[in-house]
Every structure is written in structure tokens, then in C-alpha cells.
Amino acid sequence: MEYVLIIALLSVSLIQHFLLKRRDEHVSSFRSSLDNERNSKLELIDKLAAASSFDTMEIVEIMEEQQQVVNVDSDIWQAEMNYGKWSDFDDNSGRPMPKLRGFWYKAPGRIIGVKMPKGSMYDMHHHPWKETLVGISGLVTVEIERTDKSILKHRLSHGDVIEISPNAPHAVMRAKEDSQLLCIWGVPDKTL
User: Domain segments of the chain: what residues?
Assistant: First the structure.
């Protein structure tokens, strides 16, 4: 009986030893993988710094910023926007979806690239900051509601610039063709 118990204890010990050894191998492999990934990123940072006018810390800041996501919103919608990457703007309308791409997340304002496929639009909305639209390509109509509730219409195509006051209701109407524009947002108006 004691012999069976000793064999059982030895078996359990051997199994524990084997499992602990496998665990240590996995932990070591995982750490090695993390170290390799970290070293690879550091090498990339050094190469970028050497090939540009940026120093290493500026490149680290740029890489960190590119991992950020911010929420952009108005009185009728909210969307997540990844730094420097095109994100779909789905307003659940079934229309073609515009795409947004944001920059300068550490600044109080935003520079946003906007791609509007033919037939897409942004419904009438407002937000508490000044907005400047700059036409890059294509053609859209921008509607701005005046204080007397009348609607002022502007064409926005390559090289056109439209300024929209804080809290002014406005819409970007159906794109007549695939269009691109820059949207520059200011700091919310503190006087309102």
C-alpha cells in the first residue's frame, strides 16, 4: 500500500515538474517575444530619427499619438476617430459612409481629413466651435442656417474655403461626386 502511495506521489511530482517546466518555457518565450518586439520598435525609432529631422523623443511622441482615438461629436452624432487612419462615419442612415481621419490630438483644435463618397452627406448639426472647411477635390454643397432661420448655400470644391461660426447649424449636403475636404475645428467658444 505504501509502495502505491509513493509511486502516486512521485507521479504527481513528475507531472508538477513537467508542467512548471512548460510554464517557464512559455513565460520565457513570451518575454523573448516582447523583448524582440520592443527592440524592433526601438530600432525603427532610431532609423526614423536618423533619416529625418526629428529626434528620437519626437518620433516616440508621434508613434504614441498614432495609437490614440478620440471621440468627435455634435448635437446629433458621435464618432470614434483614430489618429491618422481613415475611420468610417456611420450615421445609420443607409447612405454611403464618409470617412474621417484626424490629426493633432494633443492640440485643443483638430485637423480632420474627410472623404465623402458620391451620395454621402452630414445632416444639419452644430457644435460649440468654429469650423473651417477647405475643398480638396470633388463638389459638395454646404448649408449654413442663419439666425433668421434662412439657409445660406455654398459650393465647396478644390481651393474653396468656408468658415462656420460656433453653434451655427450646418450640413454638408449629398456629395455630387467622390469628394475630399479638410475640416479644421477650433477651440469651443467659452463665451456661450
Answer: 2-62, 70-185
- pTM (2 d.p.): 0.61
Q: CA–CA separation, 95 vs 140, rounded Å? A: 15
Q: Could you please state the CATH topology (level 3) that the domain comprising 70-185 is classified under.
A: Jelly Rolls (2.60.120)
Instruction: Name 88's Cβ contacts closer than 8 Å, sequence gap at least 6.
Output: 97, 98, 99
User: What are the CA-CA distances from residue 132 to residues 1, 137, 182, 185 (Å)?
Assistant: 88, 16, 8, 7
- Chain center to CA of 182: 15
C-alpha neighbours within 13 Å on the C-beta side of residue 112: 27
> For the segment 54-95, what is each residue's pLDDT rounded down to a tens digit?
777 777 777 777 677 777 777 777 777 777 778 887 777 888
Check: CB of residue 107 under 8 Å from CB of residue 96: no
Output the CA–CA distances (angstroms, integers) from residue 149 to 144, 152, 165, in the order listed: 9, 9, 15
